[in-house]
Structures are given as structure tokens and as C-alpha cells.
From TrEMBL:
<dbReference type="GO" id="GO:0016787">
    <property type="term" value="F:hydrolase activity"/>
</dbReference>
<keyword id="KW-0378">Hydrolase</keyword>
<dbReference type="Pfam" id="PF00293">
    <property type="entry name" value="NUDIX"/>
</dbReference>
<dbReference type="InterPro" id="IPR015797">
    <property type="entry name" value="NUDIX_hydrolase-like_dom_sf"/>
</dbReference>
<dbReference type="InterPro" id="IPR000086">
    <property type="entry name" value="NUDIX_hydrolase_dom"/>
</dbReference>
<feature type="domain" description="Nudix hydrolase">
    <location>
        <begin position="3"/>
        <end position="79"/>
    </location>
</feature>
<protein>
    <submittedName>
        <fullName>NUDIX hydrolase</fullName>
    </submittedName>
</protein>
Length: 92
């Protein structure tokens, strides 16, 4: 899974990452859209390169946000990832 995430980030943002910890796995079912997907969410503590939008049709609104000031609406995967990161931060 980490290899797929690393490849996707390189394709979409043009940066190299090294996933250091699996934060959570989001199992999301969207009955209305007839979709089911599983999203592994990794902690990335550093990256190489300058992030840029390489898939503008999918990422045109990409921005950096503080964890405690995320915009709405959020995807379910983003909600669960933020929650897992907050829990990890509280434990450390």
C-alpha cells in the first residue's frame, strides 16, 4: 500500500515521500454513488521537492491548512485522517 501511495503522490504533486507510519485505513462506502473504496492514510514527516498540481482537473483547489482550521466540506477519509493525527499528537 505504501508504494501505491508514494507513486500517487509523485504523479499528482511531483514530490517524493517516505511514509513513516500507517495512521488509519478508511473503509468508505458511498451507497448513493454506488462506490466503495479503501484509503490507507500514512503519516508523512518530510518530503523532497516542491509540491505542484500535476492533475489540475482533480486538484485545482489544493491548499495547505492548519489541522485545527480545515475547510468544509471534508471527505470522510480526510475527517478520519485528521482525527487519527490528532489522537497521535495527543499521545506523544
Amino acid at each position: 500500500m505504501a508504494a501505491a501511495v508514494t507513486r500517487e503522490i509523485r504523479e499528482e504533486l511531483g514530490i517524493s515521500i517516505e511514509p513513516s507510519l500507517l495512521l488509519c485505513v478508511v473503509d468508505q462506502i458511498d451507497r448513493q454513488a454506488g462506490q466503495h473504496w479503501v484509503a490507507p492514510v500514512y503519516l508523512i514527516e518530510r518530503y523532497d521537492g516542491t509540491p505542484s498540481v500535476l492533475e489540475p482537473q482533480a486538484l485545482s483547489a489544493m491548499r495547505w491548512f492548519d489541522l485545527d482550521n480545515l475547510p468544509e466540506p471534508l471527505t470522510e477519509a480526510t475527517r478520519q485522517a485528521a482525527s487519527a493525527l490528532r489522537r497521535r499528537t495527543l499521545l506523544n
